[in-house]
Amino acid sequence: MKRYLTIVLLLCLGGSLAVQAQENIWQGTSCKAKQATLTAYMPEGTPRAAVIICPGGNYHWLEKDAEGTKVAQWLVSEGYAAYVLRYRVAGKMEYVSKYRTVIRGNRHPDQICDLQRAIQLVRQRYNGPVGVLGFAAGGHLAAMSGAFFDTNFLERYNIKPEVSLRPDFLASIYPVVTLTDERYVHKRSRLGLMGERTVKRILLRDSLSMENHMRPDMPPVFLVNCADDPVIDAHNSQMLDSALRANRVPHRYLEFETGGHGFGADSTKMTPEVATWQQSFTDWLHALSF
After folding, report:
1. pLDDT (mean) for 119-129
2. Is residue 1 domain-resident?
3. CA–CA gap between residue 188 and residue 208 (Å, rounded)
4. What CATH number is given to the structural domain containing 218?
5. Which residues lie closer than 8 Å to 179 by C-beta, 6 or more apart?
6. From residue 35, how far is each of 63, 82, 110, 125 by CA, in Å?
7. 170-206: per-residue pLDDT in tens?
8. Does 20 fall in a domain?
């Protein structure tokens, strides 16, 4: 697996954080998606668990700072190995030009392929629990990895993993959930995921609406949203919570009154109330023995 030659050393949270060389997750395969990368952040000593981070960005772009690098820095400070996934998205140019009306571009199932490939690679290298933490559209992607873990999306690239693609735990923070309920759907994320050619297909919308696909054998789920979220309607998380309860999936759901959207692990974007989510998350992991 080809890696970039540069190893960057960052100072964060009062200590040293080693950033391992970024890699193209599809190097050596039939998939030519060079933009899909995984960057590993490793703590000192043996990690408690490995966490794959999926930033948000309505499936058009990625919020790499608050929902990527800062999340990795925080997790490493807590003793976790963190892997920031740069998965395929439609792109800012598509948002302006709608070029996918002419060519395919990036759309489903590219994103879940990238995440399953990341899970495969991390499991092959790390003998311990592997979880997924996603924000907004990335929270939708994280939920897909739990709902569809026994569907090998990598088969289109002739890859048959010898490791489990089921995450050991999931966290969805202010996630996109429904793609069918027009009252609450985040239309930009739906379009980014599905593409202009297929966004009107009702069966495809249903197949990607996470409230319809929770299952009893889902991994444990940590779910967070804010009632005052101005971007993704709070009913998305409420619907996911209801689906998890109906299927008796072990989970913890926190809905804050204030906090808005897009705070990730950036303390400058948090209200005092929502700033407690990180401690709640690590407490939840510890209760799961991770």
Report:
1. 97
2. no
3. 14
4. 3.40.50.1820
5. 185, 190, 193, 194, 205, 206, 208, 209
6. 15, 19, 12, 22
7. 999 999 999 999 999 999 999 999 999 899 999 999 9
8. yes
